[in-house]
Design goal:
By secondary structure, the protein is mainly β. Helices cover about 10% and strands about 45% of the residues. The strands form seven sheets. Strands 2, 3, 4, 5, 6 and 7 form a six-stranded mixed sheet that branches. Strands 1-30-29-28-27 form a five-stranded antiparallel sheet, with no helix packed on it.
Length: about 425
């Protein structure tokens, strides 16, 4: 499999910035123990990236794996003939990943195999992936995805990316805001846009080729659309009042947004082919923070029409509005998982804002986070993890939690406040 998407996206990078780091704070009980052996390499100089180390870190970050330390490995096989199951079994290893990397004509070719140590059998045989210069991390993410899916049955999301906003307060100078793009593990940050005015609510198109966001650069909030490949930008709204919270429909043909052009914040959709706006809510209360249902037939939004902020859903065909949340006095920023089964949200309990998940069939609500001032949840495309903004050490940071709350990690930044995360779709 050839890797090209990440290289395409990297063309839009303006400046590399200090990347987010990862601090795993909680993993599942009894994680699967895997040995990721350093890949064989016969080049005259060291590889620019340690592919095996990246794979190992990815799997550990999922919270479902525990890696065997290299210092504990009795051997470093790179092919099946060199694998002695007994050596790995005595260390409690359940799975073993070995491989080899070659460089030909400036391109890297990786082959890899995964072994079930206890069953003494090969479960991935001579997997292959290649990439150009600067794509060794993409190769590592691809291998991580394949191994994760083979063992867990869940599609891996290590090769996806995230958007977020960095904010910097400067003495006697305007604040600076940057729209950033990075790998899902926070590596390889690239700046898409820098402004002295606030940037808000970045959102991915379903094909991962465009982003929408709110910028105040025109002296009032306006929604922009930007191509990741070319950097070309288009201003979509210029109405008096509020223009905010863009969200792509699952088929990418529409944007939901909140506009107050008619006097009150209401939810609208914009057809991206015809540029026609359609008002879909009509209430004297404040309706905001739209997102789409998984099937694209409805829009979820926050409204205080019941007296306090709660999450509602409007069915586009009929205009019927249904309240979705009843547990607690404050629920907002609802996001529906891609399988349509779970609603994640900002939930206030005892005066503290947490991230919570509600089963849309049973209505059961579960608190996922224990930190304070948690906001802006965004769900990974495989539905296994969600990313959110929170405060830690006096700074705004990103943090992640699994939908079963069993795995948690932070992505602190060395500089600025980080906020408004948006997890990309799969790129293929």
């Amino acid at each position: 499999m050839r890797i090209f998407v990440a290289l395409l996206l990297s063309l839009c990078a303006l400046t590399a910035r200090a990347q987010l780091t990862i601090e795993i704070t909680q993993g599942v009980d009894n994680p699967t123990r895997i040995a990721v052996v350093p890949m064989g390499w016969s080049g005259s100089s060291p590889l620019p990236e340690d592919v095996s180390s990246i794979v190992s870190a990815n799997l550990e970050r999922s919270g479902q794996f525990e890696s065997v330390p290299r210092t504990s490995m009795l051997s470093f096989p790179s092919k099946e003939a060199d694998v002695f199951y007994r050596d790995w079994r005595v260390m409690g290893t359940e799975f073993l990943l070995v491989g080899n990397i070659e460089e030909r004509g400036g391109r890297y070719y990786a082959t890899y195999s995964l072994f079930d140590v206890l069953g003494q059998r090969k479960v991935i045989s001579n997997g292959k992936v290649d990439g150009g210069a600067g794509q060794l991390r993409d190769i590592a993410h691809h291998i991580s995805d394949v191994v994760y899916e083979k063992i867990t049955g869940i599609r891996g999301a290590f090769a996806t990316q995230i958007l977020y906003v960095e904010a910097f307060q400067r003495v006697n100078q305007p604040d600076t805001f940057r729209l950033m793009l990075a790998d899902a593990d926070g590596a390889r940050p690239r700046m898409l846009l820098e402004s002295d005015e606030p940037l808000l609510s970045p959102a991915w198109s379903p094909d991962g080729r465009q982003v929408a966001y709110v910028s105040f650069e025109t002296s009032r909030p306006a929604i922009f659309l930007q191509s990741l490949a070319t950097g070309q930008r288009e201003q979509l709204t210029d109405f008096t009042g509020l223009n905010g919270a863009p969200a792509f429909s699952p088929d990418g043909t529409k944007l939901a947004m909140v506009l107050s052009k008619d006097g009150n914040p209401e939810i609208y959709t914009l057809d991206l082919r015809t540029r026609q706006f359609t008002r879909i809510t009509n209430h004297y209360a404040i309706d905001t923070e739209p997102s789409w249902t998984a099937d694209g037939k409805g829009v979820v939004f926050t409204s205080n029409r019941g007296g306090k902020p709660q999450i509602y859903q409007v069915t586009l065909a009929s205009g019927r509005v249904e309240r979705l949340t009843f547990d607690g006095e404050y629920n907002a920023r609802g996001r529906v998982s891609l399988d349509g089964n779970t609603l994640v949200m900002v939930h206030q309990r005892n005066g503290v804002f947490h991230i919570a998940a509600q089963d849309l069939t049973t209505g059961t609500l579960r608190i996922l986070t224990e930190t304070n001032l948690d906001e802006s949840p965004t769900i990974a495309p495989n539905g296994a993890m969600l990313l959110y903004a929170t405060r830690f050490g006096g700074k705004g940071i990103l943090a992640a939690v699994s939908l079963d709350a069993g795995t948690k990690y932070r992505l602190p930044s060395k500089q600025g406040d980080v906020r408004e995360p948006a997890w990309s779709p799969f790129f293929n």
